[in-house]
Amino acid sequence: MTLWLMAGLLFTPLAWAVLTLLLDFSKGRVVTWLGILVQVLVSLGLWAAVASDGGFLYLLGGWQAPLGIELRVDGLAVTFVLLTALVAAACGWHASIYLDPGKPWHRYFWPLFWFLWAGLNAVWLGGDLFNLYVGLELISLAAVGLVALGGQADALRAAIRYLMAALLGSLAYLLGVALIYGQFGTLSLAGVTELMNSGDVQSGLTFPLILMLLGLALKTALFPMHGWLPPAHGIARSPVSALLSALVVKASFYIAARLWLDLGGHLGGYVLAQLIGVLGSLAVIWGSWLAFRQVKLKQVVAYSSVAQIGYLFLLFPLTWGVTEAISQQAQQGITLQVVSHALAKAAMFLAAGNLIMSVGSNRVDALAGVSRFLPFSLFSFGLAGVSLMGLPPTGGFAAKWLLLQASLASGQWWWLGVLLAGGLLSAAYVFRVYRASFIEATDTDQFYHPSRSLEVIPMILALLSLGLGLVAEPVLSVMSLPFEGAGP
User: Fold this and answer.
1) Tell me: the pLDDT tens digits for 92-109?
2) CB–CB of 298/231 below 8 Å?
3) E strands of 74-155, at which residues?
4) Model pTM?
5) What is the DSSP string of 153-208?
6) Which residue among 37, 87, 159, 371 has its CA within the 20 to 30 Å range from the CA of 121?
7) What are phi and psi of 480, to 5 degrees?
8) What is the pLDDT of residues 282-323, one digit of tens each?
9) Residues ≥6 apart with Cβ < 8 Å to 417
10) Number of neighbouring beta carbons within 10 Å of residue 186
11) Helices 324-359 and 75-98, interaxial angle, to 10°?
């Protein structure tokens, strides 16, 4: 059973990608609906198996590394697999209605969508550094192609800039991987950790870890390396923007977090952890301020992503040199922040796409009067914004509450100011959009009404983000399940 589930997660998305590459947009859409159903069922099956029996280390095809592929199937991995299935299904459904079948280049959305999904699953389940790199490259190339589907000169420029940043990040990561292999003779994360814990091999220098974290931070768009993100997320079609912000930038952060939690205790240090935390804090403040100042709606949401990503990097200072209990609390807070932000930001980009379609402009001031004609999408945008602000009972609130407690318990009270300022600035840019939509400054009474399905999808995602805070405890209990042989 496990073999079929793993094959379903890793290989069937590639099969769907090849199949849709041969079809036009409409036929690719039908195939994709079938594929989404299969992927959601397989993801649910694996999540239920781990929730029932615990995590495990899986050798694909039964071959040992380095010939075989080592998969790390723990509670965190299957939670991200399920999150991907949920968000990708919503974005695929939205794209099937939102994208124009009459534009010939839109037929390439489906194969790129499936390549992206395959890469994401490979990263969530990957257990060795090289296969994580392969998954990351598949994601980057598919994401660049999806940005270029915008079909404008600006979209091509944004895609090329994104590609350059992704390649530079990959190069830094790969150099770090080579140095780790030279030092330890293995690429297995579990193997490297075991060697360091046993003391059989000298822990080595911090430089390889810094190189890998630097490359992954560039791919995640951590301040001040975020310049590629707003143009790419802002110019892409709305379902693509939702995928990029909700899932793609999380993949590189996920690898960075795995590296830090497994290797940071031996190769990291207090100064490095605090420096990363400071960069994350600057991202929260600077990204939120720029989101408040943007004149285009999707740029507001894109700079909001820069800010929300900053919270994730508080993981580094809050898990280094602290007790196991504080570290676990910080890990739970960051994981909830990842899930909550993925749901909220996907909802926000999809709702923003509906609003832009309705008024025929990307400008915030063009939303005047839209509250009377598109209240459903505007409400979805607001609900997602509540989660970004961190107000109860949302998943964003539960995440920031856990981070606040970890900050106080570890004596790092200075991060409280970041959590407070970030919430206030988030409220400022969300309410600015609301204020513009309620102004009756023009006599315009002609708005395009998107189909009801386009409005329902972001509402579902926004409600899930809102309700996550109410079911945080059972969700976290599955997330914390380790794979067999790992420490608690």
Assistant:
1) 999 999 999 888 889 999
2) no
3) none
4) 0.94
5) HHHHHHHHHHHHHHHHHHHHHHHHHHHHHHHHS--BHHHHHHHHHHTSS----SHH
6) 159
7) -85, 0
8) 999 999 999 999 999 999 999 999 999 999 999 999 999 999
9) none
10) 18
11) 0
